[in-house]
Design a protein that fits this description.
- The chain has 191 residues and is an alpha+beta fold.
- It has one domain: Umud Fragment, subunit A (Ribbon).
- Helix content is 16%, strand content 29%.
- Strands 1, 2, 3, 4, 9, 10, 11 and 12 form an 8-stranded antiparallel beta sheet that branches. A 4-stranded antiparallel beta sheet has the order 7-6-5-8, with no helix packed on it.
Length: 191
């Protein structure tokens, strides 16, 4: 084999290795793709939507450690978040963040109340929320623990969410859902 041919092969191998390492870094710290498996977030997200999640915004987890990078901002009410499911660490879930640490959350007449006032975010006025699950019986107020979040699916009638299994620990956050990138007719920013 000629010296020039070895150089071309070496260049290709180096390029492939660099591309692979770059993809790993991007996936671990910046952006990750997910596929929506269920209708728990209908009509915001439907089954089969492919989304990109910003992992950097809340401080990406450093692989193989319990450490995180510094966050750009803290999660806020109304964000659509991806997190590690508290009851099965092998699954990632996506829901809308409703209650922040220290909030008192109540579902009353199909509406969300935060600290005894109707939720101010417009998205919560477009969805009817059901009093289902162990945590949200009618008249029941839930206090969100420190370093935890209360989340609900936009399809309240069918979503298994914090009403059933409790709170999402802050350490379980993976990122904020940003855009639907597939299928083409559904491409949009997630709100």
């Amino acid at each position: 084999m000629s010296l020039k041919k070895k150089s071309v092969i070496r260049d290709w191998i180096e390029s492939i290795i660099i591309a692979f390492l770059l993809a790993l870094v991007i996936r671990a710290f910046l952006v990750q793709a997910f596929k929506i498996p269920t209708g728990s977030m209908r009509m915001t997200l439907i089954e089969g939507d492919l989304i990109l999640v910003n992992k950097f915004i809340y401080g990406a987890k450093i692989p193989f450690t319990n450490m995180r990078l510094p966050a750009l901002r803290q999660p806020k009410r109304g964000d659509v978040i991806v997190f590690i499911y508290p009851e099965d660490k092998s699954k990632d879930f996506i829901k809308r963040l409703v209650g922040l640490p220290g909030d008192v959350v109540e579902i009353k007449g199909g509406s969300i109340y935060i600290n005894d006032k109707p939720a101010a975010e417009a998205i919560f006025n477009q969805i009817y929320y059901y009093n289902r699950g162990q945590l949200t019986a009618p008249g029941e107020k839930i206090v969100v623990p420190q370093d935890s979040y209360f989340v609900l699916g936009d399809n309240s009638a069918t979503s298994k969410d914090s009403r059933y299994w409790g709170f999402v620990p802050k350490n379980n956050l993976l990122g904020q859902a940003m855009v639907i990138y597939w299928p083409i007719p559904r491409i949009r920013v997630i709100k």
